[in-house]
Specification:
CATH architecture of the largest domain: 3-Layer(bba) Sandwich
Radius of gyration: 22 Å
Structural class: alpha/beta
Bound molecules: flavin-adenine dinucleotide
CATH topology of the largest domain: FAD/NAD(P)-binding domain
Number of strands: 26
Shape: globular
Largest sheet: 5 strands, parallel
Strand content: 15-25%
Helix content: 25-40%
């Protein structure tokens, strides 16, 4: 895309007088600059670690939200185990402790050739771009989807207020009522996330709403992650409460009646949570960073640079796993990618070769209010396939659910929030 006259370049001293107020506040550029888009798991980590690795590099982080909301642990909020305040954090320390320049604005376009980002407050140019915008939701294949459906069937699958909406809806369910939940085809953000949500909704219904049930329409052939553990927990802890239907993609909704339909069934519910199919946001597609017909943005995992624009880094859930390697779309992985991209960007700006990348992941899921299970692996770079591969002997899944893992899950969340925001 080409910058128009309406867009003023931030970063050029000659244009200082013409700058919009909020953009002017983040000037002047003091040296080499990296512009990071998205203050979620990938972007926060990249921004902070670039500054830790080289305080001589200016980092501008652009994020539309003024507070950080965590998706990890948000299922616990929906299940009434934690509050929305527990998963909401300030961005302040990034600026105060690490000198990251925060711009709360909407990013409207990315100009790959100019190395610039068009925001609602003006244009920010950098020597390198790191893009971590998360996922977009794709409702195109769901007949009947409209504004009423968006209100009636919140996804609660991106950071923010829909988590509180779904929690409140659940609290309104009558005894003997019905919840419905639809799961999109994989890959989607957080493979075990829907199954943790089902477990915690079932736990809530069991404790507070006698006779209430949850019907699950899963587009996948089977439970995508930690299948045996979830299945055992559902059979043992929630008999008669969870009606799990694999191979049941959602094809239609009716907001007026609260009905979700597959090709074979109609499920009418008091509360319905539609988790839609996902893809790389249009922001990156419009910038030419996603090939025509593709769903995700291809990258070279050595430094998480776009295969279509090697001077632009793309990290987090927006990346194409077929180019990265078989890593899940998780916050822990986005955090790891942020560190790899930070090292790669710093190396590129100083004319050095970046070290080979390595990622780490552990996904914790609660299966009840006080028990959980985890799955984890370490990934290293394979120069032959140019992909990340599980390091032999490094992967594992809990053999059974336990209270210890549930406690670790909370400790992990607090530690990684601190790693990104502290
Ligand atoms: C219910 C649930 C539970 C989960 N549990 C776990 C878990 O236990 N462990 C785990 O590791 N992962 C978990 N995840 C997955 C994790 O949340 C994601 O993998 C992670 O958030 C991906 O990071 P990201 O940086 O790619 O995107 P995000 O964290 O979504 O960050 C993207 C950011 O970019 C901003 N943004 C996007 N577009 C623009 C724009 N145009 N202008 C300005 N700002 C913009 C957004 O506001 C957002 O803050 C869970 C997810 C869900 C939904």
């Amino acid at each position: 895309m080409t910058l128009t006259r309406r867009h003023m370049l931030v970063g050029g001293a000659a244009l200082l007088s013409a700058l919009p107020v909020r953009a002017e506040r983040i000037l002047p550029a003091t040296g080499p600059r990296v512009v990071v888009v998205g203050g979620g798991w990938g972007g926060l980590t990249a921004a902070k670690y670039i500054r830790l690795l080289d305080p001589g590099i200016e980092v501008v982080l652009i994020e539309r939200r003024t507070q950080f909301h965590s998706c990890p642990v948000s299922n616990w909020v929906i299940g009434h185990l934690r509050t929305i305040d527990d998963i909401t954090h300030a961005y302040d320390a990034l600026a105060k402790r690490h000198g990251v320049r925060l711009l709360h604005a909407e990013v409207e376009a990315v100009d790959v050739d100019a190395g610039a980002v068009v925001t609602s407050d003006g244009v920010v140019a950098g020597d390198r771009l790191v893009l971590s915008p998360g996922v977009a939701f794709d409702y195109a294949g769901i007949a009947g989807w409209d504004a009423a459906a968006a209100t009636r069937f919140p996804a609660a699958w991106s950071p923010g207020p829909e988590t509180a909406v779904l929690r409140a809806q659940l609290a309104e369910i009558p005894d003997g009522g019905r919840v419905a939940l639809s799961i999109p085809p994989s890959p989607y953000r957080c493979p075990p996330g829907p199954y943790e949500r089902i477990s915690l909704i079932a736990a809530y219904l069991k404790q507070h709403r006698p006779g209430a049930t949850i019907t699950v329409l899963d587009a996948n052939q089977k439970i995508v992650s930690k299948g045996k553990i979830f299945k055992a927990a559902w059979d043992e802890l929630y008999p008669g409460i969870i009606d799990y239907r694999p191979d049941s993609p959602l094809v239609q909704v009716d907001a007026a009646t609260g009905t979700l339909s597959t090709d074979f069934d109609d499920v009418t519910a008091d509360v319905a949570n539609v988790i839609p199919p996902q893809r790389t946001p249009a922001l990156l597609r419009d910038a030419g960073l996603v090939p025509d017909g593709a769903t995700w943005a291809p990258v070279d995992p050595y430094g998480f640079t776009s295969t279509l624009a090697p001077h632009v880094h793309i990290i987090g859930d927006a990346t194409d796993q077929t180019t990265v390697g078989k890593v899940p779309k998780s916050g822990f992985i986005a955090n790891s990618m942020g560190k790899v991209a930070a090292r790669a960007a710093v190396a590129a700006l100083s004319g050095r070769e970046a070290p080979p990348p390595s990622l780490i992941n552990t996904c914790y899921s609660l299966v009840s209010q006080d028990e959980g299970a985890s799955v984890g692996a370490v990934y290293s770079y394979d120069p032959e396939t140019k992909r990340l591969q599980v390091r032999p002997g490094s992967s594992g899944v809990s053999s059974q659910r336990s209270a210890a893992v549930a406690l670790q899950a909370w400790d992990w969340a607090r530690a990684i929030w601190q790693d990104m925001l502290g």
